[in-house]
Design a protein that fits this description.
- The chain is α+β, with helices and mostly antiparallel strands and about 160 residues long.
- It has one helix spanning about 10-60, and strands at about 65-70, 80-85, 100, 105-115, 120, 135-140, 145-150, 155.
- The protein has a single domain, classed as minor pseudopilin epsh domain (minor pseudopilin epsh fold, 3-Layer(bab) Sandwich).
- The strands form 2 sheets. It has a 4-stranded antiparallel β-sheet, covered by helices on one side. A 4-stranded antiparallel β-sheet has the order 4-6-7-8, with helices on one face.
- A hairpin with a 2-residue loop joins strand 6 (about 135-140) and strand 7.
- The chain is elongated, with a radius of gyration of 24 Å.
- The chain starts with 8 loop residues before the first helix and ends with a strand.
Protein backbone atom coordinates (compact mmCIF):
# COMPACT_ATOMS: atom_id res chain seq x y z
CA UNK A 1 0.00 0.00 0.00
CA UNK A 2 1.32 3.38 -1.03
CA UNK A 3 1.35 6.22 1.57
CA UNK A 4 0.20 9.56 0.21
CA UNK A 5 2.09 12.59 1.58
CA UNK A 6 1.85 16.34 0.80
CA UNK A 7 -0.65 18.25 -1.28
CA UNK A 8 -1.57 17.89 -4.88
CA UNK A 9 -1.04 20.73 -7.31
CA UNK A 10 -4.80 21.35 -7.50
CA UNK A 11 -5.12 21.63 -3.70
CA UNK A 12 -2.24 24.12 -3.57
CA UNK A 13 -3.72 26.23 -6.39
CA UNK A 14 -7.10 26.34 -4.63
CA UNK A 15 -5.49 27.55 -1.39
CA UNK A 16 -3.39 30.18 -3.21
CA UNK A 17 -6.47 31.40 -5.12
CA UNK A 18 -8.55 31.73 -1.95
CA UNK A 19 -5.70 33.60 -0.20
CA UNK A 20 -5.39 35.95 -3.21
CA UNK A 21 -9.12 36.71 -3.21
CA UNK A 22 -9.10 37.44 0.53
CA UNK A 23 -6.06 39.65 0.15
CA UNK A 24 -7.62 41.51 -2.80
CA UNK A 25 -10.71 42.36 -0.73
CA UNK A 26 -8.84 43.12 2.48
CA UNK A 27 -6.01 45.31 1.18
CA UNK A 28 -8.09 48.41 0.20
CA UNK A 29 -9.82 48.37 3.58
CA UNK A 30 -6.47 48.12 5.35
CA UNK A 31 -4.99 51.00 3.32
CA UNK A 32 -8.05 53.14 4.03
CA UNK A 33 -7.79 52.33 7.74
CA UNK A 34 -4.11 53.29 7.72
CA UNK A 35 -4.89 56.70 6.14
CA UNK A 36 -7.69 57.36 8.63
CA UNK A 37 -5.32 56.56 11.49
CA UNK A 38 -2.67 58.92 10.07
CA UNK A 39 -5.19 61.73 9.98
CA UNK A 40 -6.41 61.02 13.52
CA UNK A 41 -2.79 60.94 14.64
CA UNK A 42 -2.17 64.33 13.02
CA UNK A 43 -5.26 65.83 14.67
CA UNK A 44 -4.16 64.50 18.06
CA UNK A 45 -0.61 65.81 17.48
CA UNK A 46 -1.77 69.34 16.64
CA UNK A 47 -4.24 69.33 19.54
CA UNK A 48 -1.57 68.14 21.98
CA UNK A 49 1.04 70.59 20.69
CA UNK A 50 -1.36 73.51 21.14
CA UNK A 51 -2.07 72.34 24.68
CA UNK A 52 1.69 72.08 25.34
CA UNK A 53 2.27 75.55 23.90
CA UNK A 54 -0.40 76.95 26.19
CA UNK A 55 1.17 75.20 29.19
CA UNK A 56 4.66 76.41 28.23
CA UNK A 57 3.40 79.99 28.18
CA UNK A 58 2.07 79.62 31.71
CA UNK A 59 5.05 77.74 33.18
CA UNK A 60 7.75 79.85 31.45
CA UNK A 61 5.91 83.16 32.07
CA UNK A 62 6.61 84.07 28.45
CA UNK A 63 4.67 84.29 25.18
CA UNK A 64 4.62 81.15 23.06
CA UNK A 65 4.10 81.48 19.31
CA UNK A 66 2.75 78.59 17.23
CA UNK A 67 3.34 79.48 13.57
CA UNK A 68 1.76 77.45 10.77
CA UNK A 69 3.51 77.54 7.40
CA UNK A 70 5.28 80.51 5.87
CA UNK A 71 3.29 83.74 5.46
CA UNK A 72 1.28 84.55 3.45
CA UNK A 73 0.56 80.86 2.67
CA UNK A 74 -2.22 79.36 4.74
CA UNK A 75 -3.01 76.22 2.72
CA UNK A 76 -1.38 72.81 2.28
CA UNK A 77 0.89 73.16 5.32
CA UNK A 78 2.88 70.10 6.39
CA UNK A 79 4.82 71.52 9.36
CA UNK A 80 4.63 74.18 12.06
CA UNK A 81 6.87 75.68 14.73
CA UNK A 82 6.48 76.33 18.44
CA UNK A 83 8.62 79.18 19.78
CA UNK A 84 8.98 80.17 23.44
CA UNK A 85 9.62 83.92 23.08
CA UNK A 86 11.30 84.59 26.44
CA UNK A 87 11.98 88.27 25.76
CA UNK A 88 8.64 88.92 24.02
CA UNK A 89 10.11 90.55 20.90
CA UNK A 90 8.50 88.13 18.42
CA UNK A 91 11.88 87.07 17.00
CA UNK A 92 13.69 83.78 17.43
CA UNK A 93 16.90 84.42 19.36
CA UNK A 94 19.63 82.03 20.43
CA UNK A 95 18.76 80.51 23.77
CA UNK A 96 15.02 80.58 23.09
CA UNK A 97 13.34 77.21 22.66
CA UNK A 98 11.98 76.49 19.20
CA UNK A 99 10.49 73.23 17.97
CA UNK A 100 9.54 72.29 14.43
CA UNK A 101 6.83 69.67 14.08
CA UNK A 102 5.98 67.77 10.90
CA UNK A 103 2.65 66.16 10.14
CA UNK A 104 2.47 62.47 9.14
CA UNK A 105 2.91 61.50 5.48
CA UNK A 106 -0.05 62.37 3.20
CA UNK A 107 -1.63 64.60 5.87
CA UNK A 108 -1.66 68.39 5.75
CA UNK A 109 -3.28 71.46 7.18
CA UNK A 110 -5.37 72.24 4.12
CA UNK A 111 -6.63 75.52 5.54
CA UNK A 112 -5.46 77.73 8.40
CA UNK A 113 -7.93 80.49 9.28
CA UNK A 114 -6.48 82.39 12.23
CA UNK A 115 -6.19 85.97 13.38
CA UNK A 116 -3.34 86.88 12.84
CA UNK A 117 -3.18 84.98 9.55
CA UNK A 118 -0.82 82.14 10.34
CA UNK A 119 -0.13 81.92 14.07
CA UNK A 120 -1.41 81.59 17.59
CA UNK A 121 0.28 83.59 20.35
CA UNK A 122 -0.35 82.45 23.92
CA UNK A 123 0.48 84.95 26.67
CA UNK A 124 1.83 84.12 30.14
CA UNK A 125 -1.71 83.46 31.43
CA UNK A 126 -2.38 80.82 28.76
CA UNK A 127 -4.93 82.83 26.79
CA UNK A 128 -4.38 84.30 23.34
CA UNK A 129 -2.82 87.74 23.04
CA UNK A 130 -5.20 90.69 22.64
CA UNK A 131 -6.00 91.10 18.96
CA UNK A 132 -5.61 87.36 18.47
CA UNK A 133 -9.01 85.76 18.19
CA UNK A 134 -8.16 82.15 17.37
CA UNK A 135 -9.85 80.50 14.42
CA UNK A 136 -9.81 77.11 12.73
CA UNK A 137 -7.35 74.53 11.44
CA UNK A 138 -8.55 72.04 8.81
CA UNK A 139 -6.57 68.80 8.73
CA UNK A 140 -6.93 66.79 5.53
CA UNK A 141 -5.76 63.36 4.45
CA UNK A 142 -7.00 61.52 1.34
CA UNK A 143 -10.07 63.69 0.90
CA UNK A 144 -11.32 63.60 4.49
CA UNK A 145 -11.28 66.74 6.62
CA UNK A 146 -11.14 67.26 10.39
CA UNK A 147 -11.45 70.70 11.92
CA UNK A 148 -9.91 71.99 15.14
CA UNK A 149 -11.25 75.26 16.52
CA UNK A 150 -9.24 77.55 18.79
CA UNK A 151 -11.16 79.99 20.98
CA UNK A 152 -9.91 83.43 22.02
CA UNK A 153 -9.33 81.93 25.46
CA UNK A 154 -6.82 79.51 23.91
CA UNK A 155 -8.95 76.39 24.26
CA UNK A 156 -8.79 73.88 21.42
CA UNK A 157 -11.79 71.74 20.55
CA UNK A 158 -13.29 69.74 17.74
CA UNK A 159 -16.76 70.73 16.54
Amino acid sequence: MRCKRGFTLIETLVVVTIAGVLLAFGMPAFLDYREVMRQKSARAQVNEDLYIARQLAVTRHAPVVVAFGTPPGTTNITSYTIHVDTNGDGLVQSGERRFTRALPTNVKLSQVSLTPTDSLIFDATGILYPGTSGGSLVITGRGRADTLLVSAAGAVYQP
